[in-house]
Amino acid sequence: MTRDEEFEQLRPLLFSIAYRILGSVTEAEDAVQEAWLRYEPSPTQPTSAKAYLSAVVTRISIDVLRSARARRETYVGPWFPEPLLTDTYEDPARSAELADSLSMAALLLLERLSPLERAVFVLRDVFGFGFPEIASAVGRSEAACRQLAVRARRHMDDGRPRFEADRREREELAARFFGAVRDGDVDGLRELLAADVQMLGDGGGKAPAFRKGVIGADNVARFLASNIPLLAKIDARMERREVNGQPGAILRDRNGNVVGTMTLDVCGGQIQTIRSVINPDKLGHVGPVADAWAVAHEVKHARSAGEPE
Q: What Pfam family does this protein match (any one) (predicted)?
């Protein structure tokens, strides 16, 4: 196997590591490309290309994350990870676990960790690397990495919901949710939403989004029921998709361009959080990006046209 073929075989794993550390598709792709640029001209062949390249992409991702932290502190409104539609790293034996580590909720919990804790947690708890490999990747002793893993795991466990839904329950609830949204069924939506449900949007100041969110089952149900059905009137649509391993959707304008994505956090038989990514800078990898301001204007016009005089 050539060096190029070996790298391409490992690319899905490298991207999956980088994305979980960075929460950014574009930055993860750049980290993987940088790892190749360092690997390709190297005169020596490592004993394990997997261990070597995983270490390289981890170190690159840690450096990128440290600089990204400063930018995120001045970000306008809530910051969410870039949406990911498909995780290219396939491990059927651990598919459910890998999908859970991709969720918006899990990635936001990872934001609480230091870059080193995050890298150690991803390598150990998500991908099952041994501590000797992790120590080499992050430049710390095995004992230090074990301590980092314990601290990271404690932070993650403290933030996880106590009763997580299984995949079938999530899908059934999501199907009912999107049906009620399509029909503008306020009562049907209320039954599915937790009393303290939050609907939050990441527009980054570049697209219309509620910075403080919409809170409470009644408010969220009424907002969705009064706005989403109007999409049909402007030839826009909500396309059901799995986003970050969760039930979700892509909102498209009449030309099929991407307005935003939506994910649903399901726990205890109810929808706890609805997160939308509308910042156009975070959507280019999903497809051609729409003008969200123009779509919002059309929705507003459609509502006005339908109101009685």
A: Sigma70_r4_2
For the segment 231-253, the average pLDDT, to the nearest whole number, is 94
Tokens 């999908």 locate to: 99
pTM confidence score:
0.92
pLDDT tens digits, one per residue of 32-42:
999 999 998 88
Quote the distance between the C-alpha of residue 285 and its chain's center.
13
Q: Quick count: other Cβ atoms within 10 Å of Cβ 95?
A: 14
**Can you tell me which residue has the tokens 């009763």?**
163
Q: Which CATH fold topology does 3-159 show?
A: Butyryl-CoA Dehydrogenase, subunit A; domain 3 (1.20.140)
CATH of domain 167-306: 3.10.450.50
Q: What is the pLDDT of residues 103-128, one digit of tens each?
A: 999 999 999 999 999 999 999 999 99
Cβ atoms of residues 24 and 68 within 8 Å:
yes
Q: 208 forms bridges with which residues in the sheet?
A: none
Q: Where are the domains of the chain?
A: 3-159, 167-306
> What number of residues does the chain have?
309
Find the largest Cα–Cα distance for the chain. 77
Q: Helix 3-22 crosses helix 25-39 at what angle (to 10 degrees)?
A: 140
